[in-house]
Amino acid sequence: MAKIIAAGATGFIGNVLLKQLLEAGNEVVLLTRRPGGIQLRHPNLRTVLWDGKNVGVWAAEADGAKAIVNLCGAPIADKPWTEERKREILNSRIYPLQALVQAAVRSADPPKLIITASAVGFYGNVPSDQPVTESRGRGEGFLADVCAQWEKAAEVASSFGVRVVCLRFGVVLAPDGGALAKFLPAFKAYIGGPLGSGRQALPWIHREDAAAAISSRV
């Protein structure tokens, strides 16, 4: 039985990921600011309190863990991008990840792997007729800056021998949440239509596949 630490895993992707990890026979330690808020009940699931910012007593869980999975981050499309909201989007990704990395590298028996969410926003606004691979450099703009700092915070663990995987997700879709749940009401009311020109690139992945991309690697 592998011990997996999961942070930010009580949301849209996380609930599916927890089920996949537990069904595979793993012991899952869920770091959460609201231990009573998780509805999933399983003998191999433990909830541990953390503040999402600082290394605390929870860091002892990293010792002997096989992997740390990080899905922390405020949604980017729920509120207008005021300067305050931009800071919240960035800090909600950087602070938890920095704490997780510190906990990992300070362990006597560090995790072998850190998997963290990132996003295709790393590439900036790419024309739809241009293919994009991992070899493409970072783009420009706020989201590209956020993703670059996000991944840089994770890569610190690499110099300590911990493998780091940054998953540059596109739009994650499922009918009961995320972007699709916001689109569907307009189309059900027969007032839906193209966004902008309708020709822009929209890389996407189903939620089950996004979760499986993580669970299959730990």
Architecture, according to CATH? 3-Layer(aba) Sandwich
Main sheet overview: 6 strands, parallel
| Fraction of helical residues | 25-40%
> What is the CATH homologous superfamily assignment?
NAD(P)-binding Rossmann-like Domain
Topology order in helix (H) and strand (E) letters = EHEEEHEHEEHEH
Structure description:
The chain is α/β, with parallel strands linked by helices. It has a single domain, classed as Rossmann fold (3-Layer(aba) Sandwich). The chain is 31% helix and 19% strand. The protein has helices at residues 14-23, 83-105, 142-155, 178-188, 207-215, and strands spanning 3-7, 27-32, 45-49, 67-70, 113-119, 163-169, 171-174, 204-206. A 6-stranded parallel beta sheet has the order 3-2-1-4-5-6, sandwiched between helices. Helix 1 crosses helix 5 (207-215) and helix 2 (83-105) runs parallel beside helix 3 (142-155). It is globular and about 55 Å long. The mean pLDDT is 92.
In short:
This protein is of the alpha/beta class. The protein has helices spanning 14-23, 83-105, 142-155, 178-188, 207-215, and strands spanning 3-7, 27-32, 45-49, 67-70, 113-119, 163-169, 171-174, 204-206.
Which labels suit this protein?
alpha/beta, 19% strand, Rossmann fold, two-stranded parallel sheet, 6-stranded parallel sheet, 8 strands, 218 residues
